Amino acid sequence: MSKVAVVFWSASGNTEAMANAVVEGAKEKGAEVSLFFATDFNADMVGQYDAIAFGCPAMGAEVLEESEFEPMFSSCEPKLGGKNIALFGSYGWGTGDWMRSWEEECGNCGANLVCDSVICCETPDDSGIAACKALGAAVAG
Q1: Cβ–Cβ contacts within 10 Å for residue 12, how many?
Q2: Of 6, 8, 48, 108, which residue is 20 to 30 A from 39 by alpha carbon distance?
Q3: Is residue 72 within 8 Å of 38, Cβ to Cβ?
């Protein structure tokens, strides 16, 4: 059984709904799953998990949330080399540039993106929830 962490930040609840669907998909695949708000996860915890799904909405000029999520993620980056991860998040404007930049950042630190990232405009609809469940299953192996 794989051990999976789902780590997210959400203000409106959209990315939280996505995180809950990721958890459900990973559990359906048989993984032991822990759900963390960004402030409850840190770099020292990365090694405790076989895989990690990170979720963050687009903020400002399509960037990661800057006061809580981005500092936590940046501190984890040096430990993500070779780690199986997946990315998800919601947005309300733009074209998904924040996700493409985030994927590139993960590639630069040597993380293994196990599946396509999932982005949802505003509240995830049924297809968005299904995509998040599939992401959870993928990260669970």
Answers
A1: 12
A2: 108
A3: yes
